[in-house]
Structure formats: C-alpha cells, structure tokens
Amino acid sequence: MPFHAAGTHTGASLDNALNKVISSYTPSIKALGYARSQIKHTQFGQPTRDQMLITLMPETPRGANDKAGFSKLKGILVEGEKIAEIVSPYVSLVVRTRPNANEVLAQLENCQISHFACHGMSNPTDPSSSGLVLQRLARDGTFEQDHLSVYRIAQLRLRYAKLAYLSACSTAENNGARLQDKVIHIVSGFQVAGFPHVIGSLGPAGDEECVQVASRLYSSVFEHGGVPYIEGQRVAMAVREAVMAVRAQDMDMPLNWAQLVHFGA
Predict the structure, then answer these.
(1) Less crowded by CB within 10 Å, the N or C end of the chain?
(2) Contact 64, 197 (CB under 8 A)
(3) Can you give the residue ranges of the CHAT domain (predicted)?
(4) What percent of the chain has pLDDT over 90?
(5) Residue 69: how many CB atoms within 10 A of its CB?
C-alpha cells in the first residue's frame, strides 16, 4: 500500500502525504536498526575512488517457462547515459550491460552505489527466489535468463555499500500471501547484504518515468558532494523530490510516479 502517496492529487492541493512528510519504509523495527548500524560501519577511504555500479538490461532472454517473455526496456540505455553524466564527477563508474549474476555479485563487493535498470521477478510461492533478471550464456551458445535472487543477494556482507537503486518492476513487492509477515522481497535482500538505503518499486514503471526519476534523484543526492554526503534523510528526500517532479507533469496517472519507495535509515 503506497501510504507515502495517500491524499488528494489535483490542482494545487496540498492535502496529501507527499507535500507533508518525507516517507521511508522498513520491513521491521529490527531491519531499521540493522540499516542504521550499517551507516555507522560503512567504510570509506578505500584505495580506489568511490565506485558506482550501473547494470543495464535493455533486452531480456525468454525463460524456459516464459511464454510471453519480458518486454524490451527501450529507455534503459538513455537512463544509464543520463545517470553517468550526473554522477561521473563524483564516482568511478562500472557499467555492465547484459551481465550475468556472478559478474554483478563480484562488482558489488567494491561499490558504494549500485543502480539496476532491468526487469524484476516476484515469486509468490518462494519469495527468496524472487530477484533481478539478468542473462548468461547457455551451453548451446544462446543466451538464457540468469536470476540474481534475493537468497544470493542476502548472502553478501558488503563493507562499502551505501545506496542501491532498483529501477525494476515489483522490487519492493511480496506476493506470497502466507509469507506477508516475513517481508521477503528484493529490496530486503539488498538491505540484509549491507545497503542502508534501498530504493525499489511497488509495481510496473514506465521507461520515460524511470529516466526522469533517476536523473532527478541522483542530481539531488549529489547536490552537496560525493558519496560520503549520502547520509541521514538525504536519500529519502531525494526520492520525494524526484517523485513530486514527475507527479507535477501528470497527477492523474499515479501509477507513473507513486510506485517508487525508499527503504532504510
């Protein structure tokens, strides 16, 4: 339920949550405490410059049991270019287009910020197998889906992690009716891995809106400097500002902007 977007969104009305509060979600009080502890223990000053991983999947192979297949994400490459333009003065960029899960897991070890522009997959019967959809080379020489699952992500213990932005569908959604109290979704997997701030989506997001929100968000996050300045309410405020900017263009289409949420401290 998008409580952060509750209220009246017409004309100049201020009678809504976006205009009154800075919203942030947490799966549990324990998870919130863990996120805050990660802020204290996040390490800076590693030998190399602060790094950001950008993972892009403009096309996704069809899965073995996937009749329709995933749609092409036409705005993905533009999204990556816009983000790179904004953040390159502050971080060293590692861009991976159409990578496999092992490549991404290896890169996460040294990155403070990770941005994923790809499809997400939510499994209602086994939420721990939900994840981000990447690709790998099959034995026959073709490409097949490779899933960066909640389970694999949660096994990581990242020392430098600061912010993960999951620009993918349903990354903050748990469809398992019998497991709602467990709050197992892709966002929580990244939190367990060590990211104190995770941005995810409650549902489908349009290509154009993803580009606009990501561009505005990173501009706001880096407004006062590099990675060490990502602290306190800055990320949650940046999410709110980005969402409100997109909302102003089309208030009658909440599915274009209300799905983005911040989890963490």
Answers:
(1) N
(2) no
(3) 2-264
(4) 38
(5) 12
Least confident of 9-18, 76-85, 118-127, 191-200: 9-18
Walk me through the domains of the chain, giving residue ranges and CATH numbers.
25-230 (3.40.50.1460)
Q: Are 230 and 265 in contact (CB under 8 A)?
A: no
Name, in order, each residue with C-beta under 8 angstroms of 225's C-beta and a sequence gap of 6 or more. 90
Neighbour tally for 198: CB within 10 Å = 27
86: number of Cβ within 10 Å: 18
The pTM of the full predicted model, rounded to 2 decimals, is 0.85
165-175: per-residue pLDDT in tens? 998 765 555 45
Q: Could you give the count of Cα atoms lying within 13 Å of 152 in the half-sphere of its Cβ?
A: 17
Residue 14: CB atoms within 10 A of its CB come to 9
The first and second tokens of residue 65, run together, are 């049991």
End-to-end CA, the chain: 20
25-38 pLDDT per residue, tens: 776 777 667 666 76
H or E element at residue 162:
none
Please name the residues in contact with 2: beta carbons below 8 A apart, sequence gap of 6 or more.
202, 254, 258, 259, 261
Instruction: Please report the DSSP string for 207-233 in residue order.
Output: HHHHHHHHHHHHHHHTTT-SGGG--TT
Q: One-letter amino acid identity for 190? A: F
Q: Scanning the structure block, which residue is given the tokens 């409650």? A: 202
Cα 35 to Cα 210: distance, rounded to the nearest angstrom: 25
User: What is the Cα–Cα distance from 128 to 152, expressed in whole angstroms?
Assistant: 9
95 phi/psi in degrees, rounded to 5: -105, 125
DSSP 91: S
Is the alpha carbon torsion for 172, 188, 26, 225 positive or negative? negative
